[in-house]
């Protein structure tokens, strides 16, 4: 009998399936807003809020808790489908025990081979009061991500009944978290969150440019897939907290320079001599000139560590250990899921089919450290 792991094919598909959950679909939207992208944006905002707490108040945060509780809340939201926020929160508060039972039961049904310890912590999280500083940060990030989305739909829906009430409710929810210094900074000066807005623009950039796919995934949603994969992998190998932090946030931010350059597909990078090196050099320049001015100076070296050469291993040094090559394997696995799922949904093309075959071959050959063969076999069973 195989060992039950946190990183398994059923878990990956549960996360990926959130790309099929459409947000604000009762409003006129200029772009497709999905739950996968919302959770990715929320994870990035949580990092920003946490860094403010650390650097300006001296708070000692449990970053593994922030990462895992964000994933637990993501699982809860995915299981509860796309209910309106007011309905969702009322049901969760008034029918807490029944809802928790349903979420755990549905999780077990969808991920039958989940790591028992992970499943136990999920159940404990659902039943907890969620009163820690880490949970406050996650909640505040949730509402700030919602507010960002709302701004994209507000102008097109000004004449819609109830739109001003929605605006007021979101602002009131954010005000409840003004004890966090990052939230107060946004209330005083919205330019403080230009970095968050820049990250949000990755929700507009589609993966697999010019290739029809179902579901269409974005660069930011893809980044969360990679981040959650490496996190689950680190749980299985019982990595220390610093490695978990470095791997997760490097994975989450690894494509950040693409907001300034847009995506250049791998075949072009591989076949145009010197292009990959030129792009890396140009991306470094843009990170320094366009991204660093948006964040406090004490964060600069860490951001550079995460977004410049993210697939390089690091062992010790200023920021501790990072398994960059495993992050790259998770990046390839996320791309494989995108291609494989599209074919399952009935949409494919010659470039997509070729990409799927090449990704599978590389993962089966080089992906032993993340258990790629086992993941692919299970995904094939799910997507069949």
General description of the model:
The protein has one domain: Hypothetical protein af1432, CATH 1.10.3210. The chain is 65% helix and 0% strand. The chain has 19 helices and no strands. The protein has helices spanning 9-16, 35-57, 63-79, 85-94, 96-110, 116-127, 133-154, 163-175, 181-188, 194-200, 219-236, 241-253, 258-261, 266-271, 275-291, 300-307, 324-344, 350-366, 372-382. It starts with 8 loop residues before the first helix and ends with a helix. 39% of the residues are buried.
- Give the uncertain stretches in residue-range form: none
Tally of structural domains = 1
What CATH first level would be assigned? Mainly Alpha
Secondary structure class reads: mainly alpha
Written as H for each helix and E for each strand, in order along the chain, the element string is HHHHHHHHHHHHHHHHHHH
> What would the average pLDDT be, to the nearest integer?
91
Identify the CATH homologous superfamily: Hypothetical protein af1432
The total count of helices amounts to 19
Distance between the termini: 23 Å
* Rg on CA atoms, Å: 20 Å
Residue share in β-strands:
under 5%
What is the overall shape? Answer: globular
Instruction: Outline the biggest β-sheet.
Output: none
How is the CATH topology named? Answer: Hypothetical protein af1432
CATH architecture: Orthogonal Bundle
Percent helix = 55-70%
Strand tally: 0
